[in-house]
Amino acid sequence: QVRLVESGGGMAQVGDSLKLSCAASGASGRTVSNNAMGWFRQAPGKEREFVATISWNGGSTSYADSVKGRFTISRDNAKNTVHLQMNSLKPEDSAVYYCAAARSSTVVATAEHYRYWGQGTPVTVSS
């Protein structure tokens, strides 16, 4: 079992930046260093949507078109953490952001391929 805990969410103005972090921990030293990781988000009244994913070693990344060029996903396997740097925030970025660990080691953009999920951290961007 792996536990994922997100942090870094909060209130922001249009054009601001926020950095989300996801800390992974597991029983018996279980880590996510061999798993691809992803960020998803869900706005009120909308379905959960893919935001970004990173391969097990950070060598590959993929982004939703809506955040490409503004968001950057990264990971530090030594610290079992994953980050999402969000720049040039827009009101439509407002959502609860979830960190997830994939079943595979390669980038994947669909939620059903993710095994472990965090509780989410809310982001609100106001104009």
Multimeric state: single chain
- Radius of gyration, whole Å: 14 Å
Q: Topology as H/E string?
A: EEEEEEEEEEE
Number of helices: 0
Number of strands: 11
**Main β-sheet description:** 7 strands, mixed
Structural class: mainly beta
Mean pLDDT: 96
Strand content: over 45%
Are there runs of 5+ residues with pLDDT below 50, and where? none
Shape descriptor: globular
C-alpha end-to-end distance: 40 Å
Written account of the structure:
This protein has 127 residues and is mostly beta strands. Helix content is 0%, strand content 50%. It has no helices and eleven strands. It has strands spanning 2-7, 10-13, 18-26, 37-42, 49-54, 61-63, 71-76, 81-86, 95-102, 114-117, 121-126. The strands form two sheets. Strands 2, 4, 5, 6, 9, 10 and 11 form a seven-stranded mixed beta sheet that branches. The model has no long low-confidence stretch (mean pLDDT 96).
